[in-house]
Amino acid sequence: MAGLTAEAGDGIPSRAECDELMVRYSMRSNIVEHSLQVMNVALAIVGKLKSKAQVNRDLVMAAALLHDITKTRSLETGENHALSGGMLLRELGFPSTAEIVEQHVVIHNIDPGGKLEEREIVYYADKRVRHDMIVTLDERVADLLQRYGTTEAIRTRILQNKKQALAIEQKIALRIAGGLKQVWLE
Asked: What is the mean pLDDT of residues 95-111?
């Protein structure tokens, strides 16, 4: 594993590299299981997209697997795992993946009528997985409020994230023949 970094300009680690990174950065097994399920949901969405909705499947896979790369560490340090995960991946030479990881908790600048982006798919997939189970957005939000909603500011952010996830859900549904039910999420 020593020397695992991307080639110049490569922002996407391979599946094998993702697996190595999850081991190297000591991701707890429950976090790995969560990340694998987020990847499954994200790739199910990608697999059902109409041909005009072009996304990079490898980028979605890598970002979904690594979105919680520093979550284990953050449980001890209290750091923002989305930002520290992005920083780590950027240092390793994976800037495209880092950008998505940085926005998996709070996403910025969604264009409801614009192109569906990889970061939106990973963000949404993460909001549909509680631990390693696929759940509704309402179930996931209720869990987040219970576990992390210790202050009004945090509760407000979680509810704002739900609004963002609903906007992305509509965006995804428009790009799947037959809607989201075709992806086995509903």
From this structure: 95
